[in-house]
Amino acid sequence: MSKSFFIDTTRCTACRGCQLACKEWFELPANKTKQLGTHQNPPDLNAYNYKLVRFSEHMIGDRVEWYFFPDQCRHCVYPPCQGAADTVLEGVVIQDEATGAVIFTEKSTQISKDDFEYIRESCPYDIPRRDEKTGRMAKCVMCIDRVQAGMLPACVKVCPTGTMNFGDREDMLALAQKRLEKVQKTHPNAMLANPDDVNVIYLLADAPERYHTHSVAQASPRSRKQLFASVRNRLATAGDGVERS
């Protein structure tokens, strides 16, 4: 049975323990960054930060409201990045059958920057990042090594508030629905973000745009019609012998 995260943003305190645990487990190097006047740091996801607790501040009426959003790859049930990548070079993006984890492989170093951008544009959550030094594509891999060893993902293991949850997909969907019903008693606009399409299910207590532009799926920079036309063109010319950089 595939696995899923359930991320309850109503319980997130932005301690960033999940962000740091992810970085520590994968032994990712430090980023050169700077303070931009927000709790959020670094400013965005990058090749050395697979997880980022986003921070948004809004004035609602006469009150300042804070919204925290632990951003990461959604491990889509049917990952569009895999479909796009297969038209560039098969095997760049794979999906583990047992867990549903979507993984960028070392083959990603073989594709050009333009092809990376093509793959990135297919993602409705703006997740893929690229190491400019090595060309490696990078993102959350569901801690596949830990999960295969019967361990929780590092971000879930370290979470002190119950924000991060992980388990069999059906169990996480049931937990998410139960929690949603409770939250809706005080926050009638609460919702689950694209639960049928992803294996990282977020509970949002308010309008999605107050959390993050991509807290719910967004259209590709190109329209779906343009994207599918591009995929068809690539498939039609896949055997034309064109060499990629």
From TrEMBL:
Any Pfam family hit: Fer4_11
Signal peptide, first to last residue: none
PROSITE patterns named in the record: 4FE4S_FER_2 (PS51379)
Domain 4Fe-4S ferredoxin-type stretches: 3-31
InterPro entries linked: 4Fe4S_Fe-S-bd (IPR017896), FDH_Electron_Transfer_Unit (IPR051555), Formate_DH_Fe-S_su (IPR014603)
Single biological process term from Gene Ontology: formate oxidation
A single MF term (Gene Ontology): 4 iron, 4 sulfur cluster binding
Secreted in keyword set: no
CDD domains registered for this protein in UniProt: W-FDH
Places the protein is found: Cell envelope
One annotated Gene Ontology cellular component of this protein: cell envelope
Alphabetical keyword list: 4Fe-4S, Iron, Iron-sulfur, Metal-binding, Repeat
Main localization, broad class: other
Domain of life assignment: Bacteria
PANTHER family per the UniProt record, alphabetical: FORMATE DEHYDROGENASE, NITRATE-INDUCIBLE, IRON-SULFUR SUBUNIT (PTHR43545:SF6)
Name recorded for this polypeptide: Formate dehydrogenase subunit beta
